[in-house]
What we know:
- By secondary structure, the protein is mainly α.
- It is 62% helix and 0% strand.
- The model has no long low-confidence stretch (mean pLDDT 87).
Amino acid sequence: MSRMFNPPHPGVLLKEDVLPSLGISVTDAASQLGVTRLTLSKIINGKSFISPDMALRLAAWQGMQMAYDLWQAEQQVPSEYCSAREI
């Protein structure tokens, strides 16, 4: 497997993909993650690394977001089409 020449900082994904797709600001995301806006800003601007603690926070946050998104989607589907409601 070849190595990427110049891999992007993980924070770039948060800045360019995750936050816009969720439609939330850096301030809101920082609040939900339990960190300061400055801390998250440094990460998404590539000025700070993602610590193991932050990685765990992000994983938990993404898991909660996915569960919320799934619940929202299920509310839009008629009950006869969603067998998950019957379980």
